[in-house]
Amino acid sequence: MKAVCWMGTEKMTVETVPDPTILILVTQLFALPALVFAVSDLHLYNGLMPTMEQGDIMGHEFMGEVVEIGAGVDREKLKVGDRVVVPFTIACGRCFFCQQQLWSCCDNSNPNYWIAEKMMGYSPSGLFGYTHMLGGYAGGQAQYARVPFADVGP
Length: 154
Ligand SMILES: [Zn+2]
Fold this sequence. Notes:
This protein is an alpha+beta fold. The protein has a single domain, classed as Alpha-Beta Complex (Quinone Oxidoreductase, Chain A, domain 1). The protein is 12% helix and 21% strand. The protein has helices spanning 39-45, 96-99, 113-120; strands at residues 2-8, 11-16, 25-27, 56-57, 62-66, 83-86, 89-90, 126-127, 144-145. The strands form three sheets. It has a four-stranded antiparallel beta sheet, with no helix packed on it. It has a three-stranded antiparallel beta sheet with strand order 2-1-4, with no helix packed on it. Strands 7-8 form a two-stranded antiparallel sheet. The longest helix has 8 residues, at 113-120. The radius of gyration is 15 Å and the shape is globular. It starts with a strand and ends in a 9-residue tail after the last strand. The model is unreliable at 25-34 (pLDDT under 50). Zinc ion binds next to helix 2.
């Protein structure tokens, strides 16, 4: 698939990358007349956030259509063909913080929490397309994106 990739400070390009193994969304990125980046992407573009790696897929908020649903997703909440908006934060929906609707504090979505704790003093939830210290998740500026805990965020 095609995806917008971070290739280094002030360098982002459209690259051909492997498709995600569990396809959840087809984004509408390539139907847009131009790429749209959020202000938060400028932190990455300018090299201000550590733990980006060459080839990381950009895009921390996106929308699209559900094309495949993985095991463990509540099929009452999400169905193939649903059109959804996916937020920046990745939340499990089950931990103490998620139960309080404090999604950005989710205890279960950042597998690299120890890096974030070391660098920032605490770890927020995992985030799409926003450094490896915040999970290393591929972003949504691509033809397909994999969305963990897909019955919570979209
Ligand atoms: Zn949680």
